[in-house]
Amino acid sequence: MKRNKLVVVGVGHVGSYVLADAMKLGLFAEIAVIDSDKDVAFGEALDQAHATSLTYMSNTTVRSGDYSECADADVIICAAGPSMLKSEDDKMPDRAQLAAVNAEVIREVMTGITKYTKDAIIILITNPLDTMVYIAENEFGYPKGRVFGTGTMLDSARLRKIIADNYDIDPKSVTGYMMGEHGHTAFPVLSRLNVQGFGEKELDQVFQGKEPLSRERVKQQVVKAAFDVLNGKGWTNAGVAQAAVTLAKAVMLDERSVYPVCTTLHGQYGYDGDVALSMPCIVGRNGVEQQLEISIDSQEMEWLHQSAEYIKEAMKVAKTGKNS
């Protein structure tokens, strides 16, 4: 009998949150945990197993194991490798610094997974995300669409929160998202932002904003939001874990939800197989069912090219891509 199964690879700050959120989802009968530190994997699984005795918790079977657990997995969420490095001075930490370290981690993880499956949907969180997605998607012969990254989902949530706070409204009333790199060069697609039909140019007239809407300022605020969390507690985990679990749910329920996730571009915006970045995509049972190339204005297009070039620099460090 086939039971819904999730595998979580890497249970550090982010992966442990993914595990906790997935346990509460009520969607997986089985969750397996893999970590290079087997004691940590065992402890996290056991801790969550004890919690299944409590009221309101699903009786999910949770255990630690090795890559053979991937053989019958429906979804694999990978949060392996160190996340952002906290900066010693007051500069913004750069995810690209992690490119060389985590490229090896992702290659090791994908080697382990592909020994047992090329069917499971793989959702990546590991930074620098766009480069890691590119490696996982293009170096292991994995079927198209079945590997993707959480992308700018969290950046987009931060964008909606910033807009909502400015106009004193519920962030769920804001439709809008970030595109490009999950990192410094992510940019808001403000030409497509709206609040129940009111667009970028109307917001200041309709709602009483604390300050007028400014593209540059919004872009900076979203990037700084990650920095604020990181320098406050030393890492970011709650938001991105929730994004990954939301995507897992979209896959399992074949929701065909539209989210800005990270995939390799195939002809969109002038890029063809040479970079992975975030754009709106339909996410369903087969992973990324369709990439949606939305028209963006000239400033946004300029930002997209800057973002793609920045990602390509990290790809060089990770020794991947067409030029390496």
TrEMBL record:
Superkingdom in the source lineage: Bacteria
Record key words, sorted: NAD, Oxidoreductase
Name of protein: L-lactate dehydrogenase
Entry's family note: Belongs to the LDH/MDH superfamily. LDH family.
SUPFAM superfamilies: LDH C-terminal domain-like (SSF56327), NAD(P)-binding Rossmann-fold domains (SSF51735)
UniProt-annotated binding residues for NAD(+): 10-15, 35, 102, 125-127
Lactate/malate dehydrogenase N-terminal domain boundaries: 5-149
